[in-house]
Amino acid sequence: MSPGSQPAKESRRAVTRTLRVKTSRRTELQDITSAVQRVIHEAGVASGVCHLYVPHTTAGITINENADPDVPRDIEAAMDRMVPKDGPYKHFEGNADAHIKATLTGVSQSVQIENGELQLGRWQGIFFCEYDGPRQREVRVRIVRDDVS
Amino acid sequence: MSPGSQPAKESRRAVTRTLRVKTSRRTELQDITSAVQRVIHEAGVASGVCHLYVPHTTAGITINENADPDVPRDIEAAMDRMVPKDGPYKHFEGNADAHIKATLTGVSQSVQIENGELQLGRWQGIFFCEYDGPRQREVRVRIVRDDVS
Amino acid sequence: MSPGSQPAKESRRAVTRTLRVKTSRRTELQDITSAVQRVIHEAGVASGVCHLYVPHTTAGITINENADPDVPRDIEAAMDRMVPKDGPYKHFEGNADAHIKATLTGVSQSVQIENGELQLGRWQGIFFCEYDGPRQREVRVRIVRDDVS
């Protein structure tokens, strides 16, 4: 993943950035935790809510264990078993399963920020969930601070 | 869907509206994007977060492709296959599957707003997910602006 | 569930608390609605958004019916059928299914607050979703008020 963050649109209360994510497999959970944390550090936000949003229809975002890489691999395999690529689908593009997986996963997540750090649990990481890769993708990060006077 | 928005409860930072949604099938994804966008236009909010909430237990809300209507149809069919109506359920009302689908889909979503527009991806639309219709339903929209001085 | 809330870190706009949840079964939906509502009452917040976050990787949070206890039981059973404990998993700890269920459920939810009350639907309750219990768990509650001048 390349962080590739653009100049922020700064307002009094929100900081926004777009992260670039390059995936290499059809179904792939990719850890983007450090790129998200970097946005918060660069913005100098001490306390607030970090809204994460995936503007795609065949991808999602989830928070799960990033200590053992077998965990994201197991999630990828389970998604592919629950929603097979070749089902009785109508959608003509051959990626109906990816749309269904996106809905099961969700495209928005919110994580709290305290003391300038994402308040993730000890074993948690943030994963971009590719379901129709490989592709070039985006994640939109919006930090709404509550430390503004 | 009829927009049927009530007078807003305005405060300094939030605008709230309740949208009415009328569904016509038992399992039905219904596109509510334009009704949500209309709330933002009417409220005159330039920048912020749009919180969407479904106050029901047999329905949900998702964001997915609204260009090809086969995509929502495929999601409906996949949900009905993964969680069959007649499973080994205890709940006496005969709609246990609808409750399970609501949890798999989720009842809250957040979308960012910039320049007075929902920051949806190019192919994304917002769908109310009916799992026990036809019914009269509601979606609560809360816009928290960050362009307030 | 024991509420066990710590002293709040108060700022101008946000109130945060950590709830303690003690689960007693491997897969268990536990109603935490009244503990969340208590945080809002104690904080004296009239209007805003309540962000709920589970800092674990084998648990989640959902909103569903809490009138008939058969509904959470049916959701537990459906999750265990869709994602069996003994699948073809790589993760060595024997709880890969619990990680997958956490992603299907999600770890963050947002609920609106008006007049000092969670704006849940008539039949809705907030459930902590244990997928690898019994354990001692936490839920982080962040109330972002919009009634601050």
Tags for this model:
homotrimer, 149 residues, alpha+beta, Jelly Rolls, six-stranded antiparallel sheet, three-stranded antiparallel sheet, 9 strands, 23% helix, elongated, disordered N terminus
Quick structural summary:
Three copies of one chain form a homotrimer. Chain A is an alpha+beta fold and 149 residues long. In chain A, 23% of the residues lie in helices and 36% in strands.
Explain this structure to me?
The structure is a homotrimer of 149-residue chains. By secondary structure, the first copy, chain A, is of the alpha+beta class. Chain A contains three helices and nine strands. Chain A binds chain B through residues 9, 11-14, 16, 51, 53-57, 82-83, 87-93, 96, 99-100, 102-104, 106-108, 110, 140, 142, 144, and chain B through 47-49, 62-65, 68, 70-71, 73-75, 77-78, 81-82, 104-106, 109-112, 114, 119-124, 144, 146-149.
Biggest interface, chains and residues, is: A-B, 34 and 36 residues
| Low-pLDDT ranges of chain A | 1-10
Give the total of domains of chain A. 1
| The level-1 CATH class of chain A | Mainly Beta
Spatial ordering of strands, largest sheet of chain A: 1-2-9-4-6-7
User: What's the CATH H-level superfamily name of chain A?
Assistant: YjbQ-like
Please count the beta strands of chain A (DSSP E, at least 2 residues each).
9
Helix amount of chain A: 10-25%
Share of β-strand residues of chain A: 35-45%
Class inferred from helices and paired strands of chain A: alpha+beta
